[in-house]
Amino acid sequence: MPEITSAPVGRKPDTNKRSWHRKASRPVSGWLAALLIVAIVSPWIPQSRWLLVHMVTLGVATTSIMVWGQYFTEAILHNHLTEADRNRQVLRIRLLTAGIVVTCIGMVAAWPWVTVAGAVVVGSMLTWYAFALAHQVRHALPGRFDSTVRFYCAAACLLPLGATLGAIMAFSPVEPWRARLLVAHQALNLLGFVGLTVVGTLITLWPTVLRTTMQPAQDRHGRYSLYVMIAAVAVTIVGALCGLWWLAAVGVTTYIVGICLVLGDLVACAVSKPPRDFPGFTMGAAICWMLVWLVWLAWKLASKGTGLLADDIFTLSVPVVVGFLLQLLIGAMSYLMPMVMGGGPKIVRATNAKMHAFGSLRATITNAGLLLWVLAIGTWTHRIGIAMAVVGLASFLPATAAMVHTGVPMLKEKARQMAAQKAAADQGQSPEATSDKPAVSATPQPATAQTPDRSAVAGTTTKTVDPAPTAPTNRRSFVGACAGVATALTATAVGHRLDANNPASGVGQVSPTGHTTTVSVTAEAMKYHPSTISVPAGDELVVEITNKDPNQVHDLQFANGAHSPRLEPGDHATVKAGVITGPLEGWCTIVGHKSMGMVLQVQVNGASAAGGHDDQAGSADPRRKIDLTKAPGKGLTTRDAVVPPLLAGRVHAMTLTVEESVQEIAPDTTIDAMTYNGRYMGPVIHARIGDQMRVHLVNKGTMGHSLDFHAGTVSPNEVMRTIAPGQELDYTFTLPRAGMWLYHCSTMPMSAHIAAGMFGAVIVPPHDLPRADREYYLVQSETYLDERNGAEVNMAKIANETPDLTMFNGHANQYVFEPLKAKVGERVRIWVLAAGPSRGCSFHVVGTQFDTVFKEGAYTLKRGNPEGGGCQALDLSSAQGGFVEMVFEEPGRYTFVNHSFVEMERGAKGIIEVTS
């Protein structure tokens, strides 16, 4: 957005309203330009959908709200700000911009704590903005519309709460919390902050844009509407966070009712004087997009129920944010910027003519493109729709440049003539004698900080500026709209032809038949039954899926995006897969289930299924580059490696609770972990031979889980069975023999569950074990990472045996930065277990030798052995354990490693710090 560069003569640029507006609006110009660039290169940017949405909502919308919110506050309250006030406003907007940039960097780079830092700055600036508006209300005389400014304050206070939820979402929470947080986040930011501000502004701005009078009760209806909307936002947030989707749907429906309270007045204004230029067209279309989205959102919340996923809410996020929010802002700015530029009626008419040029054509292309974006089936038609919407909205930039190019010379000429007239008057000459041209306008004076231009807000002054168009409105609008429709139809035809020539686009030469093929599918034993479906070309496919697995959670996701919710045992869902024009694949998204064969192939007219579904081997992502020289994150608590005391008594009752959460396993590296008792790698149990363990397993996860204790000898049929979310089981066994025993989740695929953190150790010391001065435990495991932080384990890497990290006690380098402790002459015993899921361990301590080795239930070396022998490494295959003992003879820092050095270099090392 080119800058408005005019300033009244004889006044310091930094003290007047226009100069402040020029400085404050610079970030909006930058965000619009950046948004255009990102829209073009989005296929190559990680998290591009997220980035586009937040560049609009935070970059363009929030900054614009702070600029124009202050503008309307001054107009409504008739107040005057000092130079210090304006400097603080500009500083606040610049700091907001910096916070938004930091937030975007953190999210795109998958650095959640950077995202949190940016969110803190954004929230702080909006809180400051809210208090600044409240201060102005408190020191202003009562007015007809001062309640609108109070709603601005309330709306601004909601964004910090929304930013808090957004920061939490940066840590990639899993369902159902991902959907809950997303709905609450959108309720606070879009319905609360943006919606309240927009509706509060439209009460006065909409009739002004239409150049008509307000309805008699419009201000009163507006207040009622805003109160209802605030209550609706609160209900929606409570419903979302509590998982009460029916309550959230009631909240959104109530929000629609709140809008309708004032919508009747807005429609009456439009009937009285229909929109006739670009601002009216685009703002009217934006209101329609908002209502469509709200109705769709209420329907989604009510119909999906507990099966709601975050992806369901994302479906319309980008086009609606563009269609409603960005279009509304551009329409409002197209009207307001010539008014702020000012200069009198003649100059305003001239700048409006440039700003609103081809308005109906631009608005038609924008909204036709948005409709194609939302409704198109083919890839090329979809892309063309996006391109049309971008071109239509981007036309705002050259229009603004043309406005400035026209207005600035006229303002300068007017200022020159007024200065000449003033000089002539001072010398006693006739003003006309000093000018070789007629004055542009001698009577109107430019607005200043002391006499603000309030002509852009209905009801604030009896004098209005009517920027009449330069040609008959109806004829120009009709021709422009027809040209826009013709462009959209042509684009649709071109897109359809391109899609028809590109089978991969999903349209091909197949026309919809209008028929529906409904197929019943069951999920059981890691298979879909049937696993292949044949559908006539052009039919719409509806899959009715039932989970008949007694313990496992399953779902169905198709490659075209259609999907079911996660189904617990016995649950049922219907998936509309759309019109089938070519082979289509579906699969279960539960981690590891696809690799185990849960793939559904859709064939067309009996054609052979698509290529083999087992694409795991040979397709693994490259190993993550992780800087293990960095310290663990500040939020990580190093696991205490000291062997816990023996459990008291001989019968031990304990509870293991299954939970899923994002956890750090290396510096700047997180994983969607599966845990026992809330931490990657479960607790270590220390008990005696013959003790009885009574373990109570509670599954609070989102999928089936189980337990397998190697330390016991029991039939696995009952105690090791998989239990569904919400279920519990009791696992009782006795410890018959000594050793360091593995326990882990035995739900298939076990490799994925162990790599995700579902493992632990049971230490059972042999009879008459001598005392050691210090006793530690180290459980080695490896994991396989996605390229993104906070994601599930990568099954392709597990199949190819290409781990990213090898760790002791659940973190790659925690004992490098917080070493284990010992003193010279002390006997140190270290219990070691190779938990896998696949790799073993060659445990070695650099600089010392082991004089005692106990491996898999027996001593292979005892202290003081007659042979005088020692040991340099304890070799353990996956699921094997034991202990070693050593005595350090000198102080120093001794490194312990997996002497398979490739594993050491992936994190299997630590330090023992020995002091004298």
Automatic annotation (TrEMBL):
The chain crosses the membrane at residues 28-45, 51-72, 93-111, 117-137, 149-171, 183-206, 226-246, 252-271, 278-301, 313-336, 357-378, 384-408. It holds the Pfam family Cupredoxin_1. The keyword Metal-binding applies. Residues 612-628 have a biased composition (Basic and acidic residues). Residues 442-464 have a biased composition (Polar residues). Residues 513-576 form the EfeO-type cupredoxin-like domain. Residues 419-429 have a biased composition (Low complexity). The keyword DNA repair does not apply. It comes from the Bacteria. Residues 667-766 form the Plastocyanin-like domain. Keywords: Copper, Membrane, Metal-binding, Oxidoreductase, Transmembrane, Transmembrane helix. InterPro entries: Cu-oxidase-like_N (IPR011707), Cu-oxidase_fam (IPR045087), Cupredoxin (IPR008972), EfeO_Cupredoxin (IPR028096). Residues 1-21, 419-476, 608-631 are annotated as: Disordered. PANTHER family: FI03373P-RELATED, MULTI-COPPER OXIDASE. This is Multicopper oxidase domain-containing protein. The lineage of its organism: Bacteria, Bacillati, Actinomycetota, Actinomycetes, Propionibacteriales.
